[in-house]
């Protein structure tokens, strides 16, 4: 499921197709001052988004739900 939405980026805002995984990634980057390294090192395990941060974990979630990810594999 994807929606057209506007969200905050390092350089301002962006409008486009936003999937649940992209929304999580965008929020994690926002929270980590736009540092991908800080997202990977994130210690905030009480964050409700923490278990869904990576594509691998998200794919496992979709598999458990009986759905298929629409994200291309990396």
Task: Characterize the structure shown.
This protein is α+β, with helices and mostly antiparallel strands. It has one domain (3-65). Helices cover 38% and strands 19% of the residues. It is built from three helices and two strands. It has helices spanning 20-31, 36-40, 55-65; strands at 3-9, 12-18. A two-stranded antiparallel sheet has the order 1-2. Strand 1 and strand 2 form a beta hairpin. It is flat and about 35 Å long. The mean pLDDT is 83.
Kindly report the average pLDDT value: 83
Overall body shape: flat
Distance between the termini: 19 Å
Query: In total, how many beta strands?
Result: 2
Structural class determined from secondary elements:
alpha+beta
Radius of gyration: 13 Å
> Can you count the helices?
3
Question: How many domains comprise the coordinates?
Answer: 1
| Helix content range | 25-40%
Strand order of the largest sheet: 1-2
Question: Sheet bearing the most strands, described?
Answer: 2 strands, antiparallel
Uncertain segments of ≥5 residues (pLDDT<50)? none
How do the SSEs run, as a string of H and E?
EEHHH
Residue share in β-strands: 15-25%
């Amino acid at each position: 499921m994807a929606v057209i939405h506007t969200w905050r980026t390092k350089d301002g805002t962006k409008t486009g197709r936003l999937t649940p995984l992209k929304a999580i990634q965008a929020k994690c980057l926002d929270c980590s001052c736009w540092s991908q390294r800080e997202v990977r090192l994130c210690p905030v395990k009480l964050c409700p988004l923490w278990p869904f941060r990576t594509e691998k974990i998200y794919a496992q979630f979709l598999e458990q739900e009986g759905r298929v990810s629409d994200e291309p594999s990396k």
